[in-house]
Amino acid sequence: MIPFLVGLILFFGSHSVSIVAEPWRDRMVARLGESRWQGLYSLVSLLGFGLIVWGFGPARQSGIQLYLPPLWLHHVTFLLMLPVFPLLIATYLPGRIQALTRHPMLLATILWSAGHLLANGGFADVLLFGSFLIWAVDDRLSMARRVQRPIQQLPAGRLNDVIAAIGGLALYALFIFWAHARLFGVSPLAGIA
Questions:
Q1: Which end of the chain is more exposed for a tag (fewer CB within 10 A), N or C?
Q2: What is the DSSP string of 157-193?
Q3: Do 99 and 170 touch, CB atoms closer than 8 A?
Q4: Do 58 and 1 meet the contact criterion of CB atoms below 8 Å apart?
Q5: What burial letters (b/e) apply to 38-51, b meaning 16+ CB within 10 Å?
Q6: Could you read off the pLDDT tens digit of each residue along the chain, which spans 193 residues?
């Protein structure tokens, strides 16, 4: 459980600097330079993410169950997950989806984490998905009071929304039928009648 918790602290700590200490972040960027800051930020984030991935499996085995979701909530999760991959792709493809949602990656994270909380009631599950949900909502709310830094995107194009939608739905199908079980050892279709 310790690597998992340390991973959550490092990952969300690094991702929350702009939310809770933007002036400090700006001073560090001025002192270190943008490239060195991004390198340090990336290193801490990757270390945290690696510890989360490494520690989540053993943490899940603890057997502590906070709630047992009814089967119908698994079906709701499938619906909530449907727009997640299109939103993730739309983050980098300027178009109507991006303009309408303003922060498609944060919306995708909110839907992903909420959906997984509906389908998983173990202590480690709630800690992981609950952390992502709280962080994404807080980050989304904080966007109103801080300067937005641009993210790298592909050029604007007429087909960007179509690419995001079709590509995202294809990724969703890939995850449902193959990748989720392969990567995480759990099939989303297991036990669904």
A1: C
A2: -TTHHHHHHHHHHHHHHHIIIIIHHHHHS--TTTT--
A3: no
A4: yes
A5: eeebeebbeebbeb
A6: 899 999 999 999 999 998 888 889 889 989 989 889 899 999 999 999 999 999 998 898 887 899 999 989 989 999 999 999 999 999 999 999 999 998 999 999 999 999 999 999 999 999 999 999 999 999 999 887 877 776 777 777 889 999 999 999 999 999 999 998 888 888 888 867 5
Query: Domain boundary residue among 42, 62, 82?
Result: 62
Range of the domain at 153: 65-193
Same domain, 93 and 181: yes
Q: Are residues 84 and 164 in the same domain?
A: yes
Q: From the CB of residue 109, how many other CB atoms can be counted at a distance below 10 Å?
A: 21
56 and 133 housed in the same domain: no
pTM, 2 dp: 0.88
